[in-house]
Write a structure and sequence with these properties.
five-stranded antiparallel β-sheet, 140 residues, Heat Shock Protein 90, 38% helix
Length: 140
């Protein structure tokens, strides 16, 4: 499993860089060309949400992205450190309940429509959004 980690400051201009890096790694991982726009848009939405949260609560803290190639999946995890009033969840949140219980529910609903698989882990210490898409297996 190969992992690329990226951290960036909470500036909207850095969201574009995160989208470009994610798209390039998705392409290298073997994600179908027809899905690359969805990867770009979902990563952009997750990073924009994190930038907004950081700018309001902790502008000096970096946003972290992990991009992984694991067992035929391309996985992206966007983690922020913005404090939240949301309750801590050891398990991912039911995405159907997001629009009712989370202020960021709309953006996450968009991500859920773009990614093949999405899990959201909110806590008082930040939010982690994991999304993934199918990828071609690595050549042997």
């Amino acid at each position: 499993m190969a992992t690329v980690e990226l951290t960036f400051s909470a500036l909207p201009a850095h969201v574009r860089t995160a989208r470009l890096v994610a798209t390039a790694i998705a392409r290298r991982t073997g994600v179908e060309e027809s899905l690359l726009d969805e990867v770009r848009l979902a990563v952009g939405e997750a990073c924009s949400r994190a930038v907004e949260a950081h700018r309001a609560h902790c502008p000096g803290e970096p946003i972290r992205i992990e991009l992984r190639d694991d067992a035929g999946r391309f996985e992206v995890i966007v983690s922020d450190q913005a404090p939240s009033d949301e309750t801590h969840h050891e398990q991912p949140v039911d995405l159907a309940l997001l629009s009712e219980s989370f202020t960021s529910g709309f953006g996450i609903a968009v991500i859920a429509g773009l990614a093949d698989d999405v899990e959201v882990f909110p806590s008082p210490k930040g939010m982690r959004i994991r999304m993934s898409w199918p990828a071609a297996p690595a050549p042997v």
